[in-house]
Amino acid sequence: MMTTDISYIGMAVGMALLAVPVWIFYKLGLARQIGSTLTAVARMVLQLFLTGLYLRYLFEWNSPWVNVLWVLLMVAVASFTVSRNTRLRMRLIVLPLLAGLSGAALAVGLYFLLFVLNLPHPFDSRYFIPVMGILTGNMLGVCVMGLNTFYDGLQRERQFFLYMLGNGASHAEAIKPFVRRAIEKSLAPCIANIAVMGMVSLPETVIGQILGGTAPGIAVKYQMMLAVIIFSASMLALLTTLFFADRRSFDAYVRLRDVRIRK
């Protein structure tokens, strides 16, 4: 099955659909949303154009070292993005995030490439970079929600945490309810999406593969595996990040440090 390309004229025709939401925003007096939408679309077009450009060269070079360095760069950008979105101080959270995101992405991604796809060369650009990219992108959202839930809970229920310690609980036991809540809240959307996948929603990955010429049966199998590795990597990344962040969040007297950047 041949892949049907989209011409630049076709792209322009497709972009014309944006006139519908822009017109609705205008009629409702939502001028700010018009500017935000057009800015977001312009950034998307520029970023994806540049992505296609550098991926072309990465695929041509196909160097394992370059590929790993590129993944580490993606993880670094994701770490700073999480820090900014959670308003957690960078000196506190960046290193735990780097450890959590890179460790989870490499561990789960290489497991998938080596043992599921049985690739003789798992660092091949065609497979390594897309898999690491989709894992990093999905782990980012889970870490933002999980870290916000964890630290919001600690700040709101500080007395409960101290009460647990005062009654003989270890630090791990006192922190466990906050970790449990963070994992439960951050991974609930992932579980909900997995539950309705295929019946209520057809993932963009499946649609993209089918439009790109992949047989539906193969596309569905890939989506099943991607859902599993994304969920597993997100859980591992959040737990690892929380483990290292927790060790940097308290002073010698077990008092929560000033972890948030004030507005």
UniProtKB/TrEMBL annotation:
Lipid bilayer topology: Multi-pass membrane protein
Keywords: Membrane, Transmembrane, Transmembrane helix
Transmembrane annotation, as ranges: 6-26, 65-82, 94-115, 127-151, 190-212, 224-245
Residue runs in coiled coils: none
Signal peptide start-end: none
Keyword Transmembrane helix carried by entry: yes
Superkingdom of source: Bacteria
One Pfam family in the UniProt entry: UPF0014
Cellular location(s): Membrane
Keyword Signal: no
Entry's family note: Belongs to the UPF0014 family.
PANTHER family membership: PROTEIN ALUMINUM SENSITIVE 3 (PTHR30028:SF0), UPF0014 INNER MEMBRANE PROTEIN YBBM-RELATED (PTHR30028)
Name of the featured protein: ABC transporter permease
Annotated organism of origin: Xylanibacter rodentium
Lineage of the organism: Bacteria, Pseudomonadati, Bacteroidota, Bacteroidia, Bacteroidales
